[in-house]
Amino acid sequence: PTESGFTTDVLALYDWAKARSGNSSILFWGHSLGTGIATNAARKLQEERGVQVDAVVLESPYTNIREAAAHIPITKIYRQFPGFGYLILDSLALAGMFFRSDENVKVLACPLLILHAEDDSVLPPHLGRKLYETARSAHQDKTRVKFITFPKKLGLGHDYISSNPELPALVRDFLNMK
What we know:
The structure is a single chain. By secondary structure, the protein is an alpha/beta fold. It contains seven helices and four strands. It has a four-stranded parallel sheet, with helices on both faces. The protein starts with a helix and ends with a helix. InterPro entries: AB_hydrolase_fold, Hydrolase_4. This is ABD12 lipase. GO terms for molecular function: monoacylglycerol lipase activity; phosphatidylcholine lysophospholipase activity.
């Protein structure tokens, strides 16, 4: 799998869904690694086709894959060793894996919703907050960029935001504001 291949696959899926959806809204929803794919596809759609996806929802996002890899807990033990940057972080770039959501959100014109749980132990919530700040500072209409955090006491972690019973209403409210 490659970053380019993932993006191409999402655009093919978008074309398929758009051809069958009539006037229904289509949004890109990415979780974790998929947040980088969602922002890539939304940007490519906007820049290369002049088409804006109806909205982008990012669940447990990160800014870019290099920064994410530097902060995920599994790399903590290796960060102290010389060569960590070169062997781990630079190898992602050599493989063409960048997933620059931080750069993508700067140019997206569609509504953007970022969801992050405070107890996410895979991708720290500060990465979601940083992505939100980047998007909000670049977006012309600041009301179309929203960040929702879920308190630790809910125990949603990295993988269970989608199980929150309030999520459908939160997303519906967000989509209705556009």
